[in-house]
Amino acid sequence: MKNEIIVSGFGGQGVLSIGKMIAEAGNIENLAVSWLPSYGPEMRGGTANCTVVVADSKIGSPLTDRPDILIALNRPSLDKYMPMVRPGGLMIVNQKHSEPTADFRDDIRVMVLDSSQIAMDLGNLIVANVVMFGAFVALSGVVSMDTARQVLKETFTGRKEKLLDLNFQALEAGANSVKETQGA
Amino acid sequence: MRRELWKGNEAIAEAAIRAGCRFYFGYPITPQSEIPEYMAAHLPERGGVFPQAESEISAINMVYGAAGAGARVMTSSSSPGVSLKQEGISFIVGAELPAVIVNVMRSGPGLGGIQPAQGDYFQATRGGGNGDYHHLVLAPNSIQEAVDLMQLAFELADKYRNPVMILADGMIGQMMEPVEWKKAEITEARVYPEWATTGRGGRENHRIVNSLYIESEIMEAHVHHLFSKYKAMEENEVLYEESGIEDAEVVLVAYGVPARIADKAVELLKEEGIKAGLFRPITLWPYPKKRLNDIASLDHVKNFVVVELSMGQMLEDVQLSVNGKKPVHFHGRPGGAIPSPGEVKDAVKKFIGRES
Fold first, then answer.
1. How many domains is chain B partitioned into structurally?
2. Which of B30, B175, B341 sits opposite A60 (nearest CB)?
């Protein structure tokens, strides 16, 4: 098993955190993981991205030009990375900043969800990235929901513990939005 | 205990503190700035000292001073910053002092770019400063290995009274991977060596730190003494890793993260029925010349392919080691570009005449 994942969006949308949550979850499940952020001038007010590899054997390149999974939080990310996704791969798109101007590919699984709205319905836009993480876990099956909850439990400790419940809700909401779509 | 996810630069800094480093002098530069950042946050609380130097040159000379006083000390930078440190490194070698220097390489020449590269191989292994000298160069290919090599680096620096360089690339610095802390943290106070300038304190003789020898007979003897240490390093400290050599027709040679990409290329080649193997030097100086020469003598090994994030620098050490016994080919990407495993596989197939 090897999953090469690209997470991409505007700086501030929680792109690197989504990647970290995936990597932490893989690590908890004793899988080999690597997390490599973009760094450099493109981060100044522009897009940020990270590449996460989760595998059951040692990881070669921490980079990929053929991701199995793309989590796109804005339109520039969609334009840049959708063509690279491996046929049969998975793409999770944040509706809010990614109004389609081009057709989605039909040789990959595409899930569009309005993570910003879901987060606002829960009371705080800041958990939109955890909604995306929930959708990722439910759709990809790379890690289990139990592990995802464990990641949140270990992230929101001390002074941040009061945010744990909200984040649990965001995780569930992300996962549930997938079920609703797939049930339809 | 569960492995912890660490970012490379922070893991390197933490590993240094665990190895007993209590003095760090540095100056920020991408892609290694998290090392001084981590040291600034954590060295003082662990009983250490972190001043941010006003320049890389100042930082390496602070290292020179602290090393002279017998401290366990390090500095870090990235390529253009490490160029600035070369004079100081030459002085530290000449004065026979232990210190660790970390270079998280970016592309060059000049200010170059900030993406990962391996263009400082010549500088690191040939001696970027003046004079006849060497220092050990250790090249990790994962965060775990970077952490493991940090403690070894300090031990070897003390053992030989010679600086040791960790040569990493921007991917090692920026990447996050699981780390297991294998070695116990050194917490006891450092025993200052008998040569350290700790103050005369009523002793009979001064202890002097110096790299200036005006009389040629004395200077020649000093250089011969230094080279007796290098000989011992060549005999005792060579490290490398290899796989699939036993039946390989083509051997890929790479160090650092590119060795992982080459490793995956080897897998792809095997899937296509091509017997490939991987040779990965961990010490770049001393270079594992003897083992590579032995591999070149194997009948079934027909070709070598060197893979680097440069225009071909370690390539020369492979050529010197193989010594004309077999053809040595090269695939490199300079300027911060990273080859994919598929690209390396295709290059290898072309070199060995197995294009499909």
1. 2
2. B341
